[in-house]
Write a structure and sequence with these properties.
heterodimer, A: 313 residues, mainly alpha, MetI-like fold, 13 helices, B: 323 residues, 2 domains, 0% strand, globular
Chain lengths: 313, 323
C-alpha cells in the first residue's frame, strides 16, 4: 500500500477509479504505441535516458570499472590507500581498507538492476495472471484471490522481507522471493478491476459467441488492453525492488559475495566511517535515487495513459 | 452497515490468523531453529533434550503450532533470550518510542504538505512549483535510510548541530514520564529522524493536495467566490482547500499502517529504541522471541489501522456505501 507514485494516488482512490486502456492491436502496434507514450513526455524521455545509461554501465561493468571492486589499492609509498579522498586515480575515493569506490558502485549497478527487473517482471507476471483469471472467471476463484490480496495488503513489506532474508540463506533470490510472495497484491487488484469491465465489452462477448476458448479470450482479447497497466507496474516495482535490495543488504542480510549498493553503505556505516569519509556513502545513494527517479518518470507516462484524469492540463 | 462491520471484523481476524501462521513458519521452520541458539554447543545431548523439552521444541509441528496459537491468545510472547524478561515487557518499552517517532513524522509531513500543496497549485507553472516538485520527488525516491545517513553526516558530524543517534544523551535520567518525552534533550534527538522520514512521507499528501486543488479550481463555485471579489488566499485556503482535504484525510488514515513497516531502517540507523530497531537487533542476536514479537506487533498494528481507516473513510465521505 506504500506503493504510491508520488503523483498522489492513494489506495482507496485506486480502488474506485476505472481507468480506460487504449486499444492496441498486435504486438508491433502495441510496441510502437509504447514508444509514442514515452516520447510525448519530456520527463519520461529523461528517465529512459538515465535508465539506459545505468543499464549500459551494468552491462559493461568489467570494461568500465577501473579495477576489481575487491582489490586493495596501495599508495605510492606502499601503504594501503585507506580512506583516500577522491583523486584522479580514485575518482570516488577509497574505502577503509583501500578499495576503489567507483568500481564498487559500477559493479553494484549490476546487482541492483538484476534484482530490480527480475523482481518487477516476476511480480507483475504473477499479479497480471491472477487479475486476468480472477476478473474473467469471477465467482469463487475471484473471491479466494481477492481475500488473499487483502491479506497480502496487511502484511508490512519491509519487516517481512527483512525477516525472510535474514532466516533464509543470504542470497539475492530471497529478496526476489519476498517481493513475489507479497507485492503481486497491487497489480492483481487494480488490473482485475480493469479486466472485470473489459470482459463485459461486446467484442469479448462476440469472441465467446464465435467459439473462442478461455485461453484465447484471456490472452488474445483481454490481455492487450491491460498491457500499459502492466508496464506501469513493472516500472513501479523496479524502484521498489531496488530500494528493498539495498535495505536488506544494508542491514547485512544480503549476499556478502555480491557487490551491491546496499553493501557499500553497510560497510561504510558499520565501520563508523561516515564522520571521516563523505565520499564513501554518497555515490551508492545517489545512484539508487537516480534509478528510482528514472523509473518513476517512466511509470508516470504510463499512468497518464491508463488514467487520463491525471493528464496535465 | 452492521453487516459490513461484521464482515470486516471477520476479515481482519482471518488476516491476523494468516499473519500469525506466517510468523510461526518464519520463526520455527526456517533454518537455524531456536534450539540451536539456546543450547550451548558444550552441553551434552541430555541437557539439549531437556532444554528442547522446556521450550516445547520436542513436540510435533502441529502440536507446537497449537501451543503457539494458545500462548498468543493469552498474549504470552515468551521470554527474551537476551534481556531475560518477558517479550511483552520489551515490546511495552519499545512501542511508545516508535509511536512518538511515527507521530512526529506524521505532523511534519502532513503539517508541511497542506500549505505547501496549496502553494504549488497556486503558483502553477512558476520556478517555485518546479523546485518544490523536484525536491519532494527526490526525497520520495531516495531510500530513507540513505537520506538519514547523509543527514547524520552533515548535521551531526560536520556541523555538529544535532546528536547522531539514540533518544537521549547517555546518563540522562528523566524524573517522570512527562520529562521523558518533553525535554530539550529528547527533542534534539527527535529532530533528525523526524525530518528525514517526514520528508519522505511529504510527497504523497503534497501531490494529492496539489492535484485535487487543480481539479477543484475549475469548479463554478470557485469562480463565483472570485467574482465576489474575495481575496485570492481566502479563495485558496477557505474554499478550495476545504474540499481538497478529503483524499488527504484518507491517505492520513492509512499512514500509521504504512509508516510502521517502513520505519524499521530509520530506527536502525538512528539507534532509536523502538520496535524496528528491536526487530533488527534481535535477529542479529538470534533472540527469536523478541524478533517474532516485534514482527507480530507491527503486522497487527497495520491490520488494526487499516480496519480503522476503512471505517473513517466511509464516515468522512458519505458517498461511499458500505456493502
Amino acid at each position: 500500500m506504500a506503493v504510491t507514485t508520488g503523483r498522489g494516488v492513494s489506495q482507496p482512490q485506486e480502488r474506485r477509479r476505472a481507468p480506460m486502456a487504449r486499444p492496441a492491436f498486435g504486438l508491433r502496434a502495441a510496441l510502437a504505441g509504447h514508444f509514442r507514450i514515452l516520447r510525448r513526455d519530456r520527463f519520461a524521455v529523461a528517465g529512459a535516458v538515465i535508465l539506459l545509461a545505468f543499464v549500459l554501465v551494468g552491462t559493461f561493468a568489467p570494461q568500465l570499472a577501473p579495477s576489481d571492486p575487491w582489490t586493495i589499492h596501495y599508495r605510492a609509498d606502499g601503504s594501503p590507500a585507506r580512506l583516500d579522498p577522491p583523486s584522479r586515480e580514485h575518482p570516488f575515493g577509497t574505502t577503509n581498507v583501500g578499495r576503489d569506490i567507483l568500481s564498487q558502485t559500477i559493479y553494484g549497478t549490476r546487482t541492483a538492476l538484476f534484482v530490480g527487473f527480475t523482481a518487477a517482471i516476476l511480480v507483475t507476471f504473477i499479479g497480471t495472471n491472477i487479475a486476468l483469471w480472477s476478473g474473467y472467471l469471477k465467482g469463487r476463484i475471484d473471491d479466494v484471490f481477492m481475500r488473499l490480496a487483502d491479506v497480502a495488503f496487511s502484511i508490512p513489506f519491509e519487516p517481512f522481507a527483512i525477516v525472510l532474508a535474514a532466516f533464509l540463506s543470504p542470497d539475492i533470490w530471497n529478496i526476489i522471493l519476498a517481493m513475489a510472495l507479497l507485492m503481486w497484491r497491487t497489480p492483481a487488484r487494480t488490473i482485475r478491476a480493469q479486466v472485470l469491465s473489459i470482459s463485459e465489452r461486446p467484442a469479448i462477448l462476440a469472441a465467446r459467441v464465435a467459439g473462442a476458448g478461455h485461453l484465447r479470450i484471456v490472452y488474445r482479447h483481454i490481455m492487450p488492453h491491460i498491457l500499459p497497466l502492466c508496464l506501469f507496474y513493472v516500472a513501479t516495482e523496479v524502484g521498489l525492488a531496488i530500494i528493498m535490495e539495498a535495505s536488506v543488504s544494508f542491514l547485512g542480510f544480503g549476499d556478502p559475495t555480491l557487490m551491491s549498493w546496499g553493501q557499500i553503505l553497510n560497510v561504510a556505516f558499520n565501520t563508523g566511517s561516515l564522520n571521516r569519509a563523505w565520499w564513501w556513502a554518497t555515490p551508492p545513494g545517489v545512484a539508487i535515487t537516480l534509478v528510482v527517479l528514472s523509473v518513476f518518470f517512466i511509470s508516470r507516462a504510463y499512468e497518464e495513459v491508463v488514467n487520463p484524469r491525471l493528464r496535465r492540463v | 452497515m452492521r453487516a459490513f462491520l461484521i464482515r470486516r471484523i471477520l476479515q481482519s481476524l482471518l488476516t491476523l490468523w494468516v499473519i500469525m501462521s506466517i510468523g510461526f513458519v518464519m520463526f520455527r521452520m526456517l533454518p537455524g531453529d531456536p534450539s540451536s541458539v539456546i543450547a550451548d554447543p558444550y552441553l551434552g545431548p541430555e541437557e539439549v533434550a531437556h532444554i528442547k523439552q522446556r521450550y516445547g521444541l520436542d513436540r510435533s509441528v502441529p502440536a507446537q503450532y497449537l501451543i503457539y496459537l494458545q500462548s498468543l491468545a493469552r498474549l504470552d510472547l515468551g521470554n527474551s533470550f537476551f534481556y531475560v524478561r518477558p517479550v511483552t515487557r520489551v515490546m511495552a518499552d519499545a512501542v511508545p518510542n516508535t509511536l512518538v517517532l511515527v507521530f512526529a513524522s506524521f505532523l511534519f509531513a502532513y503539517g508541511g504538505a497542506i500549505p505547501a500543496g496549496v502553494l504549488l497549485s497556486w503558483k502553477r507553472g512558476t520556478k517555485l512549483e518546479l523546485a518544490g516538485t523536484f525536491f519532494s520527488l527526490v526525497f520520495r525516491s531516495a531510500p530513507r535510510f540513505w537520506t538519514g545517513l547523509m543527514a547524520v553526516m552533515i548535521f551531526s558530524y560536520f556541523l555538529d548541530w544535532l546528536p547522531h543517534s539514540g533518544m537521549r544523551t547517555p546518563g540522562y535520567e528523566a524524573d517522570n514520564l512527562f520529562e521523558k518525552y518533553v525535554s530539550l534533550d529528547f527533542l534534539q534527538h527527535l529532530i533528525l529522524p523526524t525530518v528525514v522520514s517526514g520528508l519522505y512521507f511529504l510527497a504523497l499528501p503534497l501531490f494529492l493536495i496539489r492535484n485535487t486543488m487543480l481539479e477543484i479550481m475549475g469548479e463554478d463555485y470557485i469562480e463565483m467566490a472570485r467574482a465576489k471579489g474575495l481575496k485570492e488566499w481566502v479563495v485558496m485556503y477557505r474554499h478550495t482547500l476545504r474540499n481538497a482535504l478529503l483524499p488527504v484525510v484518507s491517505a492520513a488514515s492509512v499512514f500509521i499502517g504504512v509508516a510502521l513497516g517502513g520505519q524499521v531502517l530509520i530506527e536502525y540507523i538512528f539507534s532509536w529504541p523502538g520496535l524496528g530497531r528491536e526487530l533488527v537487533d534481535s535477529i542479529n542476536r538470534h533472540d527469536y522471541p523478541v524478533a517474532q514479537g516485534a514482527f507480530l506487533l507491527i503486522s497487527t498494528t497495520v491490520v488494526a489501522m487499516n480496519f480503522l481507516a476503512d471505517l473513517l473513510y466511509g464516515w468522512l465521505d458519505p458517498r461511499i456505501t458500505y456493502r
